[in-house]
């Protein structure tokens, strides 16, 4: 079996999170979904697990607690886009699904176009497209 990545995120409202990730065009994985968590297939080996806050907390130790609503950022989840237009489409779907723009689309480096959005719980998702030329020669 190939290695997989599961991005586990706490949520205050599972239904709102489900509406958001569904609007992004991700497929719901019913095998890993129930009343406590929903699994969304981003790609063959990449899944987002959205867990009710209490359920998420049940996996934490050492007095750790979910940080929903915190202004602290421990992670920026990043995905690639197949096209530059795909970056803009991602942002539009995120806003339509209940998310918001965290960082507007820009081109921080030649040939790299990106945007960052927040889901309804404030988790940040970046999406970036890199031109084939930039991928072949990243230091140019």
Report on the architecture of this protein:
This is Glyoxalase. Residues 3-130 form the VOC domain. Pfam families: Ble-like_N, Glyoxalase. With 140 residues, the protein is α/β, with parallel strands linked by helices. The chain folds into two domains: 1-60, Roll (2,3-Dihydroxybiphenyl 1,2-Dioxygenase, domain 1), CATH 3.10.180; 74-140, 2,3-Dihydroxybiphenyl 1,2-Dioxygenase, domain 1. The protein is 24% helix and 37% strand. The chain has four helices and eight strands. It has helices at residues 14-23, 53-57, 84-96, 132-136, and strands at 5-11, 27-29, 37-43, 46-52, 77-80, 100-109, 112-118, 124-130. The strands form two sheets. A four-stranded mixed beta sheet has the order 1-4-3-2. The protein is globular. The N and C termini lie far apart (38 Å). The mean pLDDT is 93.
Characteristics:
140 residues, alpha/beta, 2,3-Dihydroxybiphenyl 1,2-Dioxygenase, domain 1, four-stranded mixed sheet, Glyas_Bleomycin-R_OHBP_Dase, Glyoxalase, Glyas_Fos-R_dOase_dom, VOC_core
């Amino acid at each position: 079996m190939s290695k997989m990545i599961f991005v586990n995120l706490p949520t205050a409202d599972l239904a709102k999170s489900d509406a958001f990730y569904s609007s992004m065009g991700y497929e719901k994985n019913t095998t890993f979904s129930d009343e406590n968590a929903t699994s969304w297939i981003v790609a063959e080996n990449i899944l987002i697990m959205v867990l009710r806050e209490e359920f998420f907390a049940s996996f934490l130790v050492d007095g750790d607690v979910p940080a929903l609503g915190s202004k602290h950022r421990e992670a920026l989840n990043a995905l690639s886009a197949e096209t530059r237009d795909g970056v803009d489409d991602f942002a539009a779907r995120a806003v339509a699904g209940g998310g918001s723009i965290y960082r507007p689309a820009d081109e921080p480096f030649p040939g790299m176009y990106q945007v960052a959005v927040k889901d309804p719980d404030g988790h940040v998702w970046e999406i970036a497209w890199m031109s084939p030329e930039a991928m072949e020669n990243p230091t140019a």
